[in-house]
Amino acid sequence: MSFKLLLYRDDTYPDSHIADRYQVALKATLPDVEVVMARTRAEAEAHIATADAAFGKLPPELFAQAKRLRWIQCPQAGPDPSFYHPALVASEVQVTNVRGIFNDHIGAHIMAMVLAFARGLPRYWSQQARGEWKKGAPTYHLPECTALILGAGGIGAEAARLCAAFGMRVVAVDPRLESAPPGAAKLLRPEQLDQAVPEADFVIVTVPETPTTRGMFNAAFFAHMKRDSIFINIGRGATVKLAALDAALRSGHLRGAALDVFEVEPLPSDHPLWSAPGMMITPHVAADGPYLDDRRAEVFLDNCRRFYDGRPLRNLVDKANWY
Fold first, then answer.
1. Are residues 77 and 117 in the same domain?
2. CB-based contacts of 268: which residues, under 8 Å, 6+ apart?
3. Catalytic center residues
4. pLDDT tens across 275-289, in order?
5. Contact 15, 76 (CB under 8 A)
6. 148 φ/ψ angles, rounded to the nearest 5 degrees
7. Are residues 67 and 212 in the same domain?
8. What total of structural domains would you count in the chain?
């Protein structure tokens, strides 16, 4: 059934620029769908009342003007929580995202971090910067290590597969899965997390930011981790208390940590984590790689066809939990 689609390109919002590529593609595949491109708030306000679907972020004031809206496609996999404002959460409007398009890139980034620590590279990198030739950095024999993966959706499942390929024992924790992903020896529920943390040599976090995951990796969590273990987070920065992680590294309880996301981004240049022992920092680049815009387009155009046909949408979001 034909519908009206509002493409809202808000240049202040990440990834909204990709709306530009959809008009031509939609006209080719669904020629009777009315597609409107809005590049300003005023243009969006002129069409939102009669739109059945939208692409982009609709802030509360704009969303309040929607009369027929039934579906919003988010340009991202894990947007800022402000995307899911109370009026949207309380509504019947369905939201979909683009989760799944980053699995291979982020999986490779996770494995690069694991291998770097397994071979002592962070210490050798710091020695290189000082022009020092010293051997003896501690290593891990991966077939004797346990990887605890918190969040075993697409990214976590790919990390589980890669870790298992290097001989690691993998334990996955996820609230939604019915069975362990390939490569994982065991699947636990979040309420069972405490029993698994002290056994893990590598704790790998891919969980989204939700009302319950904010700040969950704190001083108590790090104290519960195995001594000389490694903490890795490529999920969301708001889940990790950076001061607590810094303290755990400087005390020697944790051997190392690798973060790609942070409570505050960019991480301030005077933040103590930059100089914390065993700390590896990448500037929110784990998802970088080729073909991402093509993958976003494939998800969105597929959902447009599904919406047109009245079929279930792909990548539906639990709005109350933001993922």
1. no
2. none
3. 236, 265, 284
4. 999 999 999 999 999
5. yes
6. -100, 115
7. no
8. 2
